Amino acid sequence: MQELLLSEKTFPIMGEALNPENTMEMDFSPANTGLMTCDFSDTKSFDHFVFDKLRAAGKKYGIGGYLEHRAIYARSEVFVTDQSDFRNIHLGIDIWTEAGHPVFAPLSGKVFSFQNNAGFGDYGPTIILEHELKGKKIYSLYGHLARKDLKGLDVGMTIPAGKAFCHVGPYPENGDWPPHLHFQLMWDMMGNWGDFPGVCSQREIEKYRAICPDPQVLTGYSPM
């Protein structure tokens, strides 16, 4: 299936190619001992942690997260089922950048669903597009958007590749996160509407790996 994605001509979702000149890879796994310096339950502290690093590195974007074991999800009960099945494996890519940055459709598609997944630590305003690749459907999810992005949308509305159709949202309306885009791909919506799990437990990794391919191929990011 990854070959099908690689065969498609795509538009960079941030409107420009991401590379080491403007982008740094960000690590939110337990291996990053620097995370201990931040109180992730406090969004302002979390915001300073992210954007101080970007400014210090002279980068416009931070990127990372596909199938990463995240150490930051204890900040919200959204991710808790029970302690033995904690959801902390990230299923998409995060692109951290200033609020208000436009987000562009990487592929032509149509609006599948949209809603405001309100609540501390949730997606906030979310749009899901449906695309068809050589007769096979794939869905792309854009989370942590601005509330204004949900106005004027209709299910089935055509979104051409390269169209700026939403924006990185500010906190707290984006689910109360430092501004970033959560970008995720799904081969199967599994009955979900306006939402889809963005993290899974470690026992579910292989199940979701098959459903949610690595979205970096559609971000325009090239590590060179």
Automatic annotation (TrEMBL):
Organism, scientific name: Cecembia calidifontis
InterPro entries assigned to the protein according to its UniProt record, in alphabetical order: Cell_wall_metabolism_enzyme, Dup_hybrid_motif, M23ase_b-sheet_dom
Identification of the protein by name: Peptidase M23-like protein
Superkingdom of origin organism: Bacteria
Pfam families in the record: Peptidase_M23
Occurrences of domain M23ase beta-sheet core (ranges): 89-187
One Gene Ontology term of the molecular function aspect: metalloendopeptidase activity
